[in-house]
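Can you give me the bound-state structure? Components:
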Amino acid sequence: MSKPTRVVIVGGGFGGLTAAKTLVKTDVDVTLVDRQNHHLFQPLLYQVAMAGLAPSEIAVPIRTILRRASNTTVLLAEVEAIDLAHKLVKVSPGPALNYDYLILAPGARTHYFGHDDWEHYAPGLKSLDDAVEIRRRVLLAFEAAERETDPRERKRLLSFIVIGGGPTGVEMAGAIAELARYALGRDFRRACPAETRVLLLEGADRVLSSFDPSLSEKAVVQLSELGVEVRTGSLVERITAEGVVLRSGEVLAASTVTWAAGVAASTLIAKLGVDVDRAGRAKVALDCSLPGHPEVFVIGDAALMLGPDQKPLPGVSPVAMQMARHVARIIAQEAAGDGRSEPRPPFRYVDKGSMATIGRSRAIAEVGALKLSGLMAWLAWLVVHIWYLIGFRNRLLVLFNWAWSYLTYRRGARLITGGRLEAGPPSLKQLESTAPQPAAQA
Amino acid sequence: MSKPTRVVIVGGGFGGLTAAKTLVKTDVDVTLVDRQNHHLFQPLLYQVAMAGLAPSEIAVPIRTILRRASNTTVLLAEVEAIDLAHKLVKVSPGPALNYDYLILAPGARTHYFGHDDWEHYAPGLKSLDDAVEIRRRVLLAFEAAERETDPRERKRLLSFIVIGGGPTGVEMAGAIAELARYALGRDFRRACPAETRVLLLEGADRVLSSFDPSLSEKAVVQLSELGVEVRTGSLVERITAEGVVLRSGEVLAASTVTWAAGVAASTLIAKLGVDVDRAGRAKVALDCSLPGHPEVFVIGDAALMLGPDQKPLPGVSPVAMQMARHVARIIAQEAAGDGRSEPRPPFRYVDKGSMATIGRSRAIAEVGALKLSGLMAWLAWLVVHIWYLIGFRNRLLVLFNWAWSYLTYRRGARLITGGRLEAGPPSLKQLESTAPQPAAQA
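Here's the bound-state model for the whole set.
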């Protein structure tokens, strides 16, 4: 008997995990590598940043999900480099991994378009650590405002700016406004919700530009109801500890700024030495493989593939999962048969629609010609997200938490952990002073 | 009308919070200062360290608890110093606080008896950050063992040492053994539970020495059933990255060591310049006030008061809460009346019994002459702890999580967050490398 085909999957997000699940009970050996021990349900990450959900409610250990996949080994390690010529994945810690097939699903990271220094003042939202840091900054801003007697400075402390009017930015802005108005409003004496200002900045001429223009307008109305000021056509010139300076010269004072204006593919893709686009995504063939390397597939946010409208497929989980099933089936078929006799089928994305949530009972959704907004869209969003949350327990816990928040307007996960007590981004001195304490690294 | 009496409370633990609650609806102005925004239900902290509960399930914002206490201001700040002569509490950030009465309830910290360098290798368990760091180390040890091919090194990675056989040490050791055997056992391919070794080291001749000797014996039996090796009379000579060296010269190799062998009062007490004992506790008068300062009270773990048996009252929450009610009533009475005409009543501790949990269906309890062990003691422990958990929501969530863990043997909060992927204590180089990334400070 010949050795079984070795498949290495890089990344335990929606793409990598779906690929591993599709390869269960096939005649291949799978190794899934991720630098995190957990799969993250990213569509709800903004809820962790806004203290609505606890980190463990939207994350499940990858091992637990793949417990019954007896042909799969899960490895917690960082992928350092990929040697396409020798079919090797170099990981740290641990020895390099050989592969017959490689599925790259490393996902995306926050991208500052050449302004990496902005990250310090305006963190993005891609990981649990990001979410806990943003939660920390938002909650500390309210605490600092409670101590502050100068009304001008208190106003700055209670000003929050979200940069980027895509679904993540809209969700964050809506959630900050709700947090301030309902959950925190009754807990503070001085930091009153009426003084809170939430600004959503978008460079283009409308928010949620991937949706129909009529839905963008409805989203702005719903955001305004929550007290969010939406500023379209606002390009950012500079971000500092004091706030944001627009290209128009206007200065927006704010203690807390978050970045939702751009993502790029994982830096792993750039190291491959293959063709990439401006967002660092690998240009893939019609079957999702790398040109010249039929044994290497790139899927999800890290892949650039054009849709029927000649626009790149969006960086959403359905694309990643459908690509994952497509390439896993190709691998399974080729591993079972005798090589690549047939031409591979091309990948075709089936768009089941998209949605964005704004707040309690507020959302928009677009499914083909059907356009929903308000309560109906929100209920649809709720059902879909609860349904796809991996793990029965998490589904129940999240549902419980949402029901609780809905009924009481409270937030259950309002914890500030770690050492810093000042609002705003940490100074470099503070970062250094926390370094020698292992307990503060959590 | 004269100005209302100003009461400053330092610490939002069981003592400080109970004092604030007792002073609600009295004619005093209360300011509660804590450097954390949350009250922590410390008796369940070991469950967070062992991935059974999420941090937000055992912690509630102090503001939320005191939301309806209209005479109370909650301040998130670090107390830098106390000026007893001028009746001032210096905080950072923010201006100093004047007081007419001061209640010091700063609690205890982990104490290494002159070996502060051990903290790096053997963290203690006093805060949520500590718990998340221990959780991280335990989970990373299993991940590293899964990668390891050398059986000797794998054994070291799967060896866990808990130093200190008091209630916290017993709870942690039992919980590690359960985590390895049930929750993780089915998720790993190589790191098998049979190879796991959990050692509980105690310097005295028995564990749980505050209980009746017969219960100590029963605890050892229950720990052995879970697979914990209990070593009494074991004094620690040295702790390194490799493990623990005993005074006998024996070397115990282990990747993960935790410290539950001693606590001392908060360093705030030492700065007061008053009489303290070896554990840094302030010697208080019979009414819990500082000798010479009838307006300053020290309560809870930071106070040294002798019981009827001439032994110091233990550092448990019932002592702190009873002291809190005692001093709050004295303050309320004196603020309402015209000064200190009557002599103050002395504090008397009412001991309602004590208990320690060992694992699923395993515990010991001692209430007066009544001694329980096993399932009955565990059920009693469960009822008491659920009951006292602050906040209706948390009670439900914790109950749900426990029921879930009990039925499925799973653990819901098995998250490794932050940047490090190696097992064991972080090297100083790793600590430095995480410093410049604000997002990793969560």
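A couple of observations. The radius of gyration of chain A is 23 Å. The longest strand of chain A covers residues 28-34.
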